[in-house]
Amino acid sequence: MADQFNISDKPGAGGGGGATVQFNWKFSTNTTIADPGSKTFRYDNADPALVTEIAVNDISNSGVDASVLLAALQVDDEIYIQETADAGAFDLFTVVSVTDETGWFSIVVTVNDSGTLPGNNNDCGWILFYQGGAAGATTFLALTDTPAAYTGQNGHPVRVNNTATALEFATFTTIDKFTANDGIFVGASAASGGARNGHSLILFDDTVNEEIIFEGIIDQFYNVFESLQIVIHWAAASAIVGAVRWIASIENLGAAGQDLDADGFAAGVASTPTTNGTSGVLTYSLLSMTNVVADAIVAGNSYRLKIERDATDGADTMVGDAQILSVNVRMA
Question: Is there a contact between 284 and 274 (Cβ–Cβ < 8 Å)?
Fold first, then answer.
């Protein structure tokens, strides 16, 4: 099982948000509190109900250096440990103290609940519950513990930064994506399909308005308070100057909502980007909309996305076809 990092909804003791982290280590039945060796941990007692101290190596079973996150554990944080293949072999601990022994950690604990002892050298999952106290959130997240610092980050995943020294919020979250092959070509105003050097494309004429429709399901991470961004990846068929006017609109297909026998697209948003100076080089054009403009879409709903080239608008000055390669739907 891969190591995982998540902001949780659990309220912290210090008033801020908590966090959970999941790692895996191999269990050793040796009860001596010392460095258990790479990718390994051990208890100070063979009876899970009587454990008072845990020794765990910095390196998890998947090879991740977990020392920063282990060091971030504080008094009253919790650790749930379970053998991967046996739900009955578990322990739930509350942290009393944490000591960095260089290369491994000593964690003094009290037992909240326990099952049987894991088997020697068996894989065990650890879930670390950070309560979000004043020091803990700052250390663990490498972010401020002030709740206002999380404004606008609802639903955004946390990731390790490029230098692997801290965690950070992702600047945007992809909640759906489409290629030209996902396009639905319906109606008299539908764009046409084509190819370029093996790339499937959607072709939009420069003299009449044409459109393409995509259908999907909004991802669980979507938060209605954030902007919904439609990023169109497109190129000119031959032009090296001029602008294309794109319009994007959403139709919410929520339960007991829009009738499939009729169209219900909300009013669209427009953008008029300039083509790249080299024909065939992609331009990424962003169209941003609020949740209201996005037809009040919510996570888990089916929906349709319509993209139109408004070729008859005076702002559309590019001669020749505009070619869409793919579309990224994201939250930011």
Answer: no
- The token duo for 63 is 């090879």
Q: What does the alpha-carbon distance between residue 112 and residue 95 come to, in Å, rounded to a whole number?
A: 10
- What's the predicted TM-score (pTM) here? 0.57
The CATH class of 174-331 is mainly beta
What is the pLDDT at residue 14? 38
**CB-facing half-sphere around the CA of 60: CA atoms within 13 A:** 20
DSSP sequence for 195-219? EETTEEEEEE-SSS-EEEEEEEE--
DSSP 221-281: T--TTSPEEEEEEEEESS-SS-B--EEEEEEEE-TT-S-TTS--PPPPEEE-PBPPSSTT-
Q: Which regions of 115-164 does DSSP assign to beta strands (E)?
A: 123-130, 158-160
Counting beta carbons within 10 angstroms of the beta carbon of residue 215, is it exposed (0 to 12), middle (13 to 18) or buried (19 or more)?
middle
Question: What does the pLDDT average to over 67-95?
Answer: 91
**49: DSSP letter:** G
d(CA 114, CA 169): 35
Calculate the dihedral angle through the C-alpha atoms of 295, 298, 304, 306, rounding to the nearest 10 degrees: 50
pLDDT tens per residue, range 129-145: 776 543 333 333 444 44
Bridge partners for 322 per DSSP = 204, 236
Segment of 34-48, 68-82, 153-167 carrying the highest mean pLDDT = 34-48
Domain with CATH 2.60.120.260 in the chain: 174-331
pLDDT higher than threshold 50 for residue 188: yes
Mean pLDDT of the chain: 87
